[in-house]
Design brief:
Blueprint lengths: L3 H36 L16 E2 L9 E3 L5 E3 L7 E7 L6 H15 L2 H4 L2 E7 L7 H10 L7 E3 L3 H10 L4 E3 L5 E3 L2 E5 L5 E6 L6 H19 L1
Parallel strand pairs: 4-5, 5-6
Antiparallel strand pairs: 1-10, 2-3, 4-9, 7-8, 9-10
Length: about 230
């Protein structure tokens, strides 16, 4: 039979151990959430219920500048587009599934603005395929999806593109068989060059999901045009 004083010490030790574990776990989660917030994690959500139709707010920091080459073999610097709102997407130049949906959403959302407001918006796509970097690749993709004269689809060397992915914290991974996985993401950059919202393309081609995303992107565009 245990002595009552020994039982008391044992219970106290168990309480201290449990409290310590709770504090450690809480600290770990606090660090994780703080890091996610600082890095503006952009892991895509495939559940429509979790999709922010109006976009996810950003810090308003200046959008990182870059210089790449568009589908007409012209040099494009992001900062040269100041005075226009920019919708910046990351598009795989060989993608036939999710990326065409992103392009459709961008085009239709801009069209919903009307001619006057749409004239103040630039659609820009950065090539998210570092293994298909030629101007011919981005030009062909643009033609195939009816976007040749609707946006700037910019590309560069694999090293230049990788630098842009890191600047925007966009995940791009190429498998051993050259299949590309990347964040299906769009950013709204205001006319002064500040990051305002980001959007994720749903992996759904249902008309209701596409319409919801178009309306959400249009709303985000209008917010930063005013």
């Amino acid at each position: 039979m245990r002595h009552p004083d020994g039982m008391h010490k044992l219970a106290l030790a168990a309480l201290i151990a449990t409290s310590t574990l709770v504090i450690i776990a809480g600290t770990a989660w606090g660090i994780r959430l703080f890091t996610m917030s600082r890095n503006q994690t952009t892991t895509p959500s495939t559940n429509p219920a979790n999709y922010a139709i109006g976009g996810f707010p950003m810090t308003g920091n200046p959008a990182p500048d870059f210089t790449l080459t568009d589908q007409f073999d012209h040099s494009v610097t992001l900062s040269s587009l100041r005075g226009h709102e920019v919708v910046l997407a990351f598009i795989d130049a060989r993608c036939k599934t999710l990326c065409p949906l992103t392009a459709q959403i961008m085009y239709d959302a801009k069209a919903r603005l009307g001619a006057s407001a749409a004239g103040r918006v630039e659609l820009v796509a950065v090539n998210a395929n570092p293994t298909a970097t030629s101007v011919t690749e981005v030009q062909s993709w643009s033609i195939q999806h009816g976007m040749l004269h609707q946006w700037l689809f910019v590309t560069g060397t694999a090293q230049q593109l990788d630098a842009v992915y890191h600047l925007y914290n966009v995940y791009v991974q190429v498998s051993s068989n050259e299949l590309v996985e990347h964040d299906p993401i769009m950013f709204i950059i205001d006319p002064q060059g500040h990051e305002r919202l980001y959007f994720e393309t749903l992996g759904s081609n249902s008309q209701s999901d596409l319409k919801s995303q178009e309306i959400g992107l249009e709303s985000g565009m209008r917010q930063w045009l005013s």
